[in-house]
Amino acid sequence: MSHEKRGLEFYLLAIFFIIFVLFLYGPLSAILILSFQGPDGGLTFPMNGVSTHWFFNLFEKQAVGDFGASFRRSFTLGLMVMAVTVVVSLLAGLAFRRRFRGSTALFYATVASLVVPSIIISLGIGVAFQEGGLKPAWYSSAFGAHLTWTLPFGVLIMFAVFNRFSPAYEEAARDLGASSWQTFRHVVLPMIAPSLVGVGLFGFTLSYDEFARTLMTSGTYNTLPLEIYGMTTNVTTPVLYALGTVTTLFSFTIILLALGIMTMLSRRQAKIS
């Protein structure tokens, strides 16, 4: 009976996994395939020929949409958010290794934005900028809005990292005459470097494709997610699918690059230890 039960659980889990994969990669696969429509192809199946026409058309001047500029804004904003998220998360992780007055309240204040609807945060920041006489822009108000999304995750990751970090390494370094800065630079930092790369990757990807917290804070110029959303109502060619394919490949490239760096750092640390 137990053997039959395990067999049933296996098939149920297999069916669930297949459905999950279809929901996850089905739409992505459809966009990837349709981006190779022929020059006379439309937005739906069946395909009218196969070509790379729409990928070349992507880099030409469009009647609607500004791919290049919106991509540069999203990429720059992602790098800004990534840098601040890594630095602040690292400092928070170091600070919270010791208890201090108000640490609990500060922690909950940090992660509170995760439970607030993103569109409400976007609206609140946009209104605050306008009431303060400041013009919302992707490099100011949207930058702050994205940090309310990325920083809590980065801080929680660093908390988990330092929770498993043994202070014995630092004590050994200080016993050998290392200063606090030397201990951090030559002992702590190399050991947590892969985790910092992960925090950076997390911050960049969350910012790069963030829509809701950018909607009311980007100002006059759109980021790439807003540009794509605006184009869905007026673009009638597969160039939109070509854009989706290119941005997806770019995201996967960033992820693979980050994983490669993390693997390299982990192997180097393993050799040292």
Outline, from the CA principal axes?
globular
CATH superfamily of one domain: MetI-like
Oligomer: single chain
List the helices and strands in order: HHHHHHHHHHH
Q: What is the residue-mean pLDDT, rounded to a whole number?
A: 85
Radius of gyration: 23 Å
Question: Total number of helical segments?
Answer: 11
Q: Considering DSSP H and I runs of 4 or more, what fraction of the residues is helical?
A: over 70%
CATH class of one domain: Mainly Alpha
Write down the CATH topology of one domain: MetI-like fold
Number of strands: 0
Low-confidence stretches are none
Percentage of residues in strands: under 5%
- Please give the CATH architecture of one domain: Orthogonal Bundle
The major β-sheet equals: none
User: Strand pairing plus helix content: what structural class?
Assistant: mainly alpha
Report how far the terminal alpha carbons are from each other. 49 Å
GO cellular component, one term: plasma membrane
Keywords: Cell membrane, Membrane, Transmembrane, Transmembrane helix, Transport
Pfam families: BPD_transp_1
Subcellular location: Cell membrane
